[in-house]
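In the lab's daily routine, each protein ends up as an entry in a very long ledger. A line of letters takes care of the sequence, but it says nothing directly about the fold. The three-dimensional part falls to structure tokens, numbers that each stand for a local backbone shape. The outcome of that step, for a single protein, is printed below.
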Amino acid sequence: MSAGESAMADTVFNTARTARTALLVIDMQRDFLDPRGYAAHAGLDVVRLRSVIPPVQALLAAARRCGMWVIFTREGHRPDLSDCPPVKRARSRAAHAEIGTPGPLGRLLVRGEYGHDLLDEMQAGADELVIDKPGYSAFHRTDLHQVLQQAAIETLIVCGVTTEVCVHSTVRAATDLGYHCIVVGDACAASQPELQGPALAMMAVEGGIFGQAMDHAALLARLPEVADTGRMKT
């Protein structure tokens, strides 16, 4: 880590020390990460997306050891697709992965189907939350904000897929709601490699307008400082 990056990290963790903190794991679902799921049907590089599984697992293990709150999200729609905007369904149709159509893992991006659930190696623990969302942002038409407020959470450590869509949408919404965000860059993957760098760089403008991007090794080295004032298990 360079001197500049170290100084920025110090700023982040000085803020995080005084906050209650949660790890937010975005959309680590079979539909996005299994080669038979929605993302593969839409032509995304699932091998690339799956590359974040080890760093996300490392973050999960560390957060659980620290007693930090862990929250997972799953993108998907009601079986009758009443919460799927026609324009979103049309886009998925154009990508040859129409939401709601049958696939090897069940109907694509439909709640209750096998493909909609989290990966086997990414299942939530008994005391961890799973937020089902119909949109890209984890705050859109969900009770996530209310849940976080009730728990006095102020800082979100964010990882998952995809960097430029659901991660970005969530972090932008979180910033507008007043949360401090730490995005774990190498624990997020973009749908295309050329989008990863710009998606992370956009967060750093204006002194970190949407938060701070760090790699998981740097974060793990500083995690105890965050966890000390994060929500602890009783």
Observations:
- Confidence is low (pLDDT under 50) at residues 229-234.
